[in-house]
Amino acid sequence: FLPTFAVAFNLIECDMAALLGAGSNVEFMVDKRTSRLEKAVDFRKAVAFYKEGEVQAVVERLAKFKSPYFQVYVRKRPILPKEEEVGDFDVVTVPDLRTICIHKCSMKADLKGMFLENHFESFDGTFSEESKNEEVYHRVLQPLTETALRGGNVTCLMYGQTGSGKTFTMRGMQKHLARDVFATDELSLVLLSSFELEGRECRDLLEPSDVPLQLLEDGNGNLIVQGLGEIVVEGENDLIQLLDDMAERRKTHATFANAESSRTHSFTKLRIRTSCGEGEISLVDLAGSERNKDSAHHDVSRQKESALINSSLMALKECVRKKQEKAGYIPFRSSELTRLLKPVFTSDNTVFSQVNLGKGAS
Length: 362
Prior knowledge:
Largest sheet: 9 strands, mixed
Number of domains: 2
Structural class: alpha+beta
Number of helices: 12
Helix content: 25-40%
CATH architecture of the largest domain: 3-Layer(aba) Sandwich
CATH superfamily of the largest domain: Kinesin motor domain
C-alpha cells in the first residue's frame, strides 16, 4: 500500500441539540454514516481546500504502480441522482491519467469531530467521470484486441461494487471491439462462446434455456463447462447483436444499491483466427460486491446470493495477492470463480483489470 496522507481540519462542531432548540436531556441516536452526511457541507469544503493546495504536489512525488502480471485501470463514475438526494457527496479525485485520490471523511467517536484522510493510489491508467466509453476502449481493450489479432491470449476483468458501472463499461466497449475485430484483412474465422456463473452453477448465455451446465475438471486440473456451445460469428453487426442478446439473458436482481444489478459472473470468449494464428479474447464481467449494511435489506435468498458473490470475490482477491507475491501456491480451489480463472494466472495470458469506483462518501 502507498503512503496515506492524513490532514485534520479544525472544522466548526455544532451542538445538534442546541441547534435544533432541544433540551439538554434529548439524546440523538445517529450512526457515523448518517452523521457524515449531515456534515456534508463542511466535508465538501475540506476536500476542496485539500484539492486546491496539496493534491498535485503529492502526485508529483508518488511512486508509480507497476505489476509484471496485471495491468490495472480505474474508472470513476458520476455521482447518481439518488445519492445526491440523500446528501451524498464526491470524495474521489482523478488528478492525472494514472492516479486516484480517495478523500476519506470520518467522524470521531463523539460524532461531532471530523477528520479527513487523503489516500493516493497509482495505477496503469485512470479515468475521470468525464471519460467516455470510447476513450476507455482505446486505452484498455484496443491493445488487447490487437494482441489477440496477432495470435495472443488476453483477458479483461471488470471488478467493482454493485452499481459502480462495470457492465455499463463492458457493454459500452463491445461495439468498438466488434469493429476492430472485423476490420482486419487477415481475418478468417471468429468463434463465440459465453456463460454465466451463479454460485456453483453455469448457464450458456447463447441459449435461451436456463438448464444448468456441469463443471468438470480436465486432465490438467482446469475447470471446463461441459456442453457449452460455440458459434461462428458472421460479421461486426452479428457480433454486436449476439453480445447484446447475451447481456439481456444474464441474471439480474434489484439490490439496495442498484436497481438492476448483475448477480452472476459472466465469461465471454472470442476465438479469432487470422493469418498470424489463433488468438483469444476473454471478457469477464464480475458480479458486484455488496457491503453488509446494504445486503441486510435483502430477503434470505438475496442475502445468500450476496454472500456467495462476496466469498468468490475474496477468493479472487487472495489469488491475485499470491500471484503478486510470487507465492509458490495459489489457492485456486477456493471457489468455482478462481478455478475457472486458473488458466489466466498460470499461462502467458495478458491480463487487464478494469476497476470501477463510485464517487460518493458512503
